[in-house]
Amino acid sequence: MIRTLIDTALVLTFGAAALPAHAATLNNGDTLTIATGITTDSNDDPLPIGAVSGSWFAIDGNGDGAIAGGETESLSQGTTGLVIGQPTTPGANSCCDYPGATNAITAPTSFLGTIGSFYTKTGVTGSTTSGLDMSGWSFVYNGLPANPGVELGTGAWTPTNAAAAGMAASGYTNGIGVFSWDGVYGHSYTLDYTATVPTGNPSGFGGYKWAFHLTGTVPTAAVPEATTYGMMLAGLGLVGFAARRRYRL
What we know:
2 helices, 249 residues, 16% helix, 4-stranded antiparallel sheet, alpha+beta
């Protein structure tokens, strides 16, 4: 009887904490690694299937609604990758680094011959069902003020050759990334996201459409928060109470 009570309490205590390993929901502190991208050099042809691998971003420079090989730039991991729920500071750029710059999510990347970096003003959260909230996604380069930076939180669009580019073919909504993951830590994920820089943005790129394809793994579950430990202690306390009551009877 005591063993049954203990087993029941452990299931109740750890069940909620164990679910994220099997459900495709990310918890604060989980990390998405950024697999290094390989892109084509062609400026003219639409992006052919298989021409890009790993993580990359693109700007629809000619305004045709598609992603061409020459419009893509590869991405690689910064110091941490994308940590769920954690905002980051702007990183390196051609002009100067910002105070506290960590280049956390991605390493500095080339952008029209200058160096820039991605950061997020608000922590990314979500799941495969709701998508990932990317509304704080931003870019900075060439000394552009970090606030607002190149704002990339709205203006979703669907590239006409999204599937050929290895992106999700549909499902793009403002500020939300299309997220695919089987919920098992250690397995791979893909995150596709599109945005349009607001008109009047001080970068001078107002109206330009951007697309992102991030891939990598979700290595391990985040360390349980204090509330989880509280649940564990409470569960074990109930077991102890039940055991004492049984012996008294």
